[in-house]
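Lab notebook: predicted structure, single chain.

Context: the supervisor wants predicted structures on file for every construct in the current expression panel, including those that have not yet been purified. This is the next one on the list. No modifications to the sequence; it matches the entry in the shared construct table.
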Amino acid sequence: QVQLVESGGGLVQPGGSLRLSCAGSGSFFRLYGLGWYRQAPGKQRELVATITRGGITNYTGSVKGRFTISRDNAKNTVYLQMNSLKPEDTAVYYCHADRGPLGEVVNYWGQGTQVTVSS
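Prediction complete. Output recorded below exactly as produced.
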């Protein structure tokens, strides 16, 4: 099992940038498939980006070219660099683990961090 703790959210103006961090516990963090989701008020939680343990990334269409997911296994941390932020990016952002060390399906969530894009 892995515990996930997000940080880095806040208030930013449109066009600005934020970097979210997700710190994970455990010796095998580097073997987990990870991702970021977000949930805006009144909407369903949606996938933002994923990164496999091999570093392969995938993005939802609305963030392609603006967001970058990365991981630093030495620090047990996954990041979401968000540039050119828009008001519609406002949401609670959650870190998620979907694949475990043996490739098995897992479903671990962090507590979320609020991102607000507003002038």
